[in-house]
Amino acid sequence: MESYDDGNRTGVRNLSWEEFARLSRDLAETVRAFEPDVIVGVAKAGLLPATAVACALRCELIPVRISRRVDDVVVHRTPQWRVPLTAGLAGKRVAVIDEMADTGETLRLVAEHTRENGAPKILTSVLVQHSWADPKPDFAALHTDELVVFPWDAKVLVDSQWQIHPEIAAAVESLERESTAATTELRPSELRLEDD
């Protein structure tokens, strides 16, 4: 099962820890205006911005885990609950935070579950949103259709060696191949005939 739909992406964007901090501050400022009682962070990577926002706003943080992945490998076509939402959200304003809205499906499922647990007001927000996310989050700190390499994926331990996350490396390589192929193809209008 594929993890990245590289066909939709338009290049690569490497985010530094400094950019992550800036985007997290932007997220915190927007979430603060919502006046949340609770932050729900979507594990794994969504816990990084969710924790940054919860600390900045001195807000309660509740982690959930819903993913297509098991042991960092995509094994499900749709997100599956691994760690469900805890009770205690009745009457609370909840900000659901993830690192990215790609399909939008994870945020939709967490927001629905949050509503089912009694939260009357819900804000969905992410660090990064792609244009094809459906539904779109209420707020994204960055809108891009690039393949985003988050700082925590830039170097991971694989067989005792630090390297770019293998899945990200494969996606970057695929995008580079597509880019090279697109720039080396001749279009009919660019062809010159010998007699010209």
Q: Would you kindly provide a written description of the structure presented here, covering whatever features stand out?
A:
- The protein has five helices and twelve strands.
- The C terminus is likely disordered.
- The relative contact order is 0.17.
- By secondary structure, the chain is of the alpha/beta class.
- The radius of gyration is 20 Å and the shape is globular.
- Helix 1 packs across helix 2.
- Helix content is 33%, strand content 29%.
Produce the secondary structure layout.
Blueprint: E1 12-14, H1 17-34, E2 38-43, H2 47-57, E3 60-67, E4 69-70, E5 73-74, E6 80-83, E7 93-101, H3 105-116, E8 121-129, E9 139-143, E10 147-149, H4 151-154, E11 156-158, E12 161-163, H5 166-184
Parallel strand pairs: 1-10, 2-3, 2-7, 7-8, 8-9
Antiparallel strand pairs: 3-6, 4-5, 11-12
Give a quick rundown of the structure:
Helix content is 33%, strand content 29%.
Question: What descriptive keywords fit this protein?
Answer:
single chain; 196 residues; alpha/beta; 6-stranded mixed β-sheet; two-stranded parallel sheet; 12 strands; disordered C terminus
How many β strands by DSSP? 12
Strand content: 25-35%
H/E element sequence:
EHEHEEEEEHEEEHEEH
State the separation between the terminal residues, measured CA to CA.
50 Å
Count of helix runs: 5
**Strands of the biggest beta sheet: in what spatial order?**
6-3-2-7-8-9
Structural class: alpha/beta
Which overall shape is indicated by the principal axes computed on the Cα atoms? globular
Q: Outline the low-pLDDT stretches.
A: 186-196
Overall mean confidence score, pLDDT: 89
Q: Tell me the helix content.
A: 25-40%
Please state the CA-atom Rg, rounded to the nearest Å.
Answer: 20 Å
Q: Report on the biggest sheet.
A: 6 strands, mixed
